[in-house]
Specification:
Number of strands: 0
Distance between the termini: 58 Å
Number of helices: 5
Radius of gyration: 32 Å
Structural class: mainly alpha
């Protein structure tokens, strides 16, 4: 039997993918070459280590979302700025029209005031996020 076939059987055994025929073939091979038993044990040990590493990586990915690259952050920042400026223009125009036309319905006046208030909160939050600086400990769970 070739060395490649022995390695294939060992790998399939470690991964739990062997058929009953392959298990019998591997058992006979280990019986003829006892050093393969030690190699199989080493492979099992390595699989335990890599499985543990995989679990840790997946746990980290769940806890901390991936960070956006610089181009994406720049695009999103530009989009936020464009939305904020557009919002300010539309709401500013609506406010000017409301001041100029006191006969506007109460629902329209209330809606515009709510838009101004909500938009103001969002813009203030975005400005606060941009100007507060980086927290050197933001990666640490508190």
């Amino acid at each position: 039997m070739s060395r490649a076939r022995a390695e294939t059987l060992l790998m399939r055994s470690v991964d739990g993918l062997t058929t009953p025929e392959e298990e019998a073939e591997l058992a006979a091979l280990i019986e003829r070459h006892p050093e393969l038993a030690a190699e199989q044990a080493d492979f099992h040990h390595l699989k335990e280590i890599t499985d543990t590493m995989t679990q840790r990586i997946l746990a980290e990915a769940e806890r901390e979302p991936p960070r956006l690259d610089a181009a994406t952050r720049t695009s999103l920042g530009t989009a936020q700025l464009a939305i904020a400026v557009g919002y300010a223009l539309v709401v500013g125009y609506a406010l000017v029209e409301l001041v100029a036309d006191p006969s506007a319905p109460l629902a329209v006046r209330g809606g515009v005031l709510l838009m101004v208030g909500g938009g103001g909160v969002i813009v203030a939050y975005l400005l606060w996020r941009r100007t507060r600086g980086r927290d050197p400990y933001h990666d640490i769970d508190r």
